[in-house]
Structures are given as C-alpha cells and as structure tokens.
Design brief:
The structure holds 2 protein chains of 2 kinds.
Chain A (H helix, E strand, L loop, with lengths): L4 E3 L2 E5 L4 E6 L4 E9 L5 E8 L4 E4 L2 E6 L4 E6 L8 E9 L6 E3 L3 E6 L1
Parallel strand pairs in A: 2-11
Antiparallel strand pairs in A: 1-3, 3-8, 4-5, 4-9, 6-7, 7-8, 9-10, 9-11
Chain B lengths: L3 E4 L2 E4 L5 E7 L5 E8 L3 E10 L2 E4 L6 E7 L2 E6 L8 E8 L7 E2 L3 E5 L1
Parallel strand pairs in B: 2-11
Antiparallel strand pairs in B: 1-3, 3-8, 4-5, 4-9, 5-6, 7-8, 9-10, 9-11
Classes of the chains: A mainly beta, B mainly beta.
Chain lengths: 112, 112
C-alpha cells in the first residue's frame, strides 16, 4: 500500500509563479525524499530531509517536514517551463523493510 | 542516469512467454530495486535485493522472480507473461538502506 499521498494530484500554474505540493504519510519515518519524473523518463532524486530536520533548501526548492502532522511540502519558487513534470514523495520507514514507499505523485504543468 | 542501464528498452511479447529484463549498474551499490509504473497506481515495488543472492519481495511480486548473482546485475523474470504485466519497468539502485535511489531509464513492456 502507498504510504505517501500527494496533494494535489495535478497542478497547473503560470511560469514565474510558485508551486506547492504536499505529501502526507502514516507511519514513523527515518527520512522523506522528493523525486521528479519527466515524461517517459526515470525518476530523479531532488532532496532528502531527515526526521530531525524541519526545513531544507536546494536552489529553487524548499522542503518542509512536520513529523507531528506526518506531512511534508515541496515548494518550487519562480517556476519555469522545464519544471513541468510529475513529483513524487517517498518515505523511509523506521520499522519497515529496506525500501522506500512512494506516493502516487503530483503532475505539475507550467504554462508559458 | 548514474551508471544504470536497462535492457531491453522496449519489448513486445506474447502472453505465456517468459521474459527477462536486465538492470546493470557500474556504481557498486549494494541495494537494487525493480518497480513497475502504471497509470493510476504510481510506482510499485516488485522485488529488491540487499546483496548478492539476497532478495526480498515487494508489494506486487506475484508472477515475477529475480536473481542477483553479481553486484552489478539484477534480473527480473516474468515467468509466463500476462497482459496485466504490460507496464513500464524501472530499476533503481541505492548505496544505503532507505536512502537516495537512482533510477534507470526504464523498459516499456507490451504483452499481447
């Protein structure tokens, strides 16, 4: 079963605007990761945030983690057409097997 | 794609035939994973390996088997292909348990 649930399932914004995607999960985690997938390609790792961290930045990406609410958000600032992709969160569970659990993704479209 | 190749990249086969997909890495990572990706289901784990000859099942393992006789190769076999196994298959590798995964380019499989 999927642990991470992304919200919204699809998001369409204008170039230059900020895009925010959310991920909720159910069990205690060691870390939470965000990946991007361009159409027809494999997933690409964007950022990893550990359970003892609250916020992390990487370029135009900002990830927050609230373990009390079991949720995370990914903010992409000053969006570009090249940011059009699907975005997935994935969790590494503390008690789980040696694997990540992926959500179903948010489809982001940046309109020129 | 971080030293990961998948072969074949595209395959069309008939129901009832065996099919083997290959994942090859040059990173010497310990962990290797096979996923399938289908519309509406996101990314689902089929099998994974945590070392040579050490494998375990994922959430959708029925009808699939795997083997890992060398660190660099992880084979996925569909014992008797069915139309429900038409999908895009991704291999991923990871250096550490539940940490960043690097994905291959994918194999598109069509079972007629």
């Amino acid at each position: 079963s999927q642990q991470g649930e992304e919200d919204p399932q699809a998001l369409s914004i204008q170039e230059g605007e900020n895009a925010t995607m959310n991920c909720s999960y159910k069990t205690s985690i060691n870390n939470l990761q965000w990946y991007r997938q361009n159409s027809g390609r494999g997933l690409v790792h964007l950022i990893l945030i550990r359970s003892n961290e609250r916020e992390k930045h990487s370029g135009r990406l900002r990830v927050t983690l609230d373990t009390s609410k079991k949720s995370s958000s990914l903010l992409i600032t000053a969006s570009r057409a090249a940011d059009t992709a699907s975005y997935f969160c994935a969790t590494g569970e503390i008690q789980g097997a040696q694997k990540l659990v992926f959500g179903q993704g948010t489809r982001l479209t940046i309109n020129p | 794609d971080a030293g990961i190749t998948q072969s074949p990249r595209h395959k069309v086969t008939e129901t009832g035939t065996p099919v083997t997909l290959r994942c090859h890495q040059t990173e010497n990572h310990r962990y290797m994973y096979w996923y399938r990706q289908d519309p509406g289901h996101g990314l689902r784990l089929i099998h994974y390996s945590y070392g040579v000859k050490d494998t375990d099942k994922g959430e959708v393992s029925d009808g699939y088997s795997v083997s890992r006789s060398k660190t660099e190769d992880f084979l996925l076999t569909l014992e008797s292909a069915t139309s429900s196994q038409t999908s895009v298959y991704f291999c991923a590798i990871s250096e550490r348990d539940r940490e960043t995964q690097y994905f291959g380019p994918g194999t598109r499989l069509l079972v007629l």
